[in-house]
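Hey, resending since the last one bounced:
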Amino acid sequence: MKHVFLTWEECKTAYQIGKVRQIRNEATGGIDIKIDPDRDSIELHMQGMGGEMAFAKMVNCYPSFATRPRRGGCDFEDFEGLSIDVKRVYHATPGIMTPLHKAEHPCDIYILLNGKISWPIPDTTTYIARYDLIGWIRGAEFLTEENKRNLGHGDCFFVPGARLNPNLEEILTWPIRALEG
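The structure tokens again:
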């Protein structure tokens, strides 16, 4: 299983970007879509940014540090010609899920990572956060009627982690294979 670690400095960066994303989200009247209404919204954005940074580290590219509010869209708009949305969980038996409105502007690929940044972030520079790649799925396979579920918090698209492709190399060589045809 492919994994990466975020350093304490990277975790703090994820926190700062998550904080600004939440402030800008509130300033424009955005609504957080979260299962637990008591969960801290800044932590929610920090965890998302942590997942984006972990994926970027796995594939040796930069994440988007943009803080503009958005509803839907992809975390990586043009990664080797593909649009990618990164999902992050912290469960023993993960699955990938996304709200139904994501089908309005689908991404080519959806990635699932398992990992998290401790909240609050420990005040020690030796802290690291581990992220494991669970796998990926093409948007056309993920955002389908057969994958619609209600997991107790409204309808969403859901695929168990066991159905995801764990081979990240297939994404990294996709443009080469497409050109070879």
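The mean pLDDT is 88.

Sorry for the duplicate.
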